[in-house]
Design brief:
The protein has 226 residues and is mainly alpha-helical. Helices cover 75% and strands 5% of the residues. Helix 1 packs parallel to helix 8, helix 1 crosses helix 9 and helix 2 crosses helix 6.
Length: 226
């Protein structure tokens, strides 16, 4: 039921983020490092044999960091070439879904740049870090897509069911990508306009769904009476 209620928000956020990304990336001169970084990762993902260690590492560390942020004790972390696990003393939906919407390596690249900028002038290296962010955002999005379209993960079941979890993952990825674009292109992206687009889109989609449901309900009543 909750997944159905948030579906208009999820759809509106996805459309608004797609429009935001198109608007920002259309400024080719500014967006070129990001696009080149993403383009560099794509052949590695689709055409070369993949070593899942780096994805497993990011996945399990995301679980662990989300647990620490939630005040949950991390008992053990196990990371292998093709799988891993984190042992916790409790869990919640945020912990279960964290690896599916937190772009771990892209966040690490951004934090590295931000911290380094406190100690020295990093403007010369800005394009390099934007390219690295594009590379790691592509890594996150494509690997998350592979996971969501593959066998159902236990994380999704633990978080409240597959439908709810997929809706939340789509919603949170949309919001995180919008924030990432704002951080990369602060002068090109307006979060105020983005939020207004999500709000208006949610109302519009919810209105369409309500109208469709009302039509089906009224039609069913007519046929049942006849």
């Amino acid at each position: 039921m909750l997944a159905l209620l948030i579906s208009p928000l999820t759809a509106a956020a996805a459309f608004a983020t797609a429009a935001l990304a198109y608007s920002a990336l259309a400024r080719l001169q500014a967006a070129l490092p990001l696009l080149l970084g993403a383009a560099l990762y794509c052949p590695l993902h689709f055409y070369l044999p993949r070593n899942r260690f780096f994805y497993v590492l990011a996945h399990e560390l995301s679980h662990a960091l989300a647990a620490l942020a939630s005040g949950v004790k991390v008992r053990r972390i196990n990371i292998g070439r093709n799988g891993g696990f984190v042992t916790l003393n409790a869990t919640n939906a945020f912990i279960s879904l964290a690896p599916y919407f937190i772009p771990f390596y892209a966040l690490a690249a951004g934090l590295t740049y931000w911290l380094a900028a406190y100690f020295c002038d990093m403007s010369t290296y800005r394009s390099f870090f934007i390219g690295a962010t594009g590379f790691f955002l592509a890594f996150h999005l494509l690997n998350t897509g592979d996971i969501l379209t593959g066998p159902v993960q236990s994380d999704l079941k633990k978080a409240g069911g597959v439908f709810f979890s997929v809706s939340m993952v789509l919603l949170l990825n949309s919001l995180c990508l919008a924030l990432a674009l704002k951080m990369i292109f602060p002068d090109l992206v307006s979060l105020k306009s983005y939020a207004a687009g999500v709000y208006n889109g949610t109302g519009l989609i919810a209105g369409w769904l309500f109208a469709g449901a009302s039509y089906l309900f009224n039609t069913a009543k007519i046929y049942l009476r006849s």
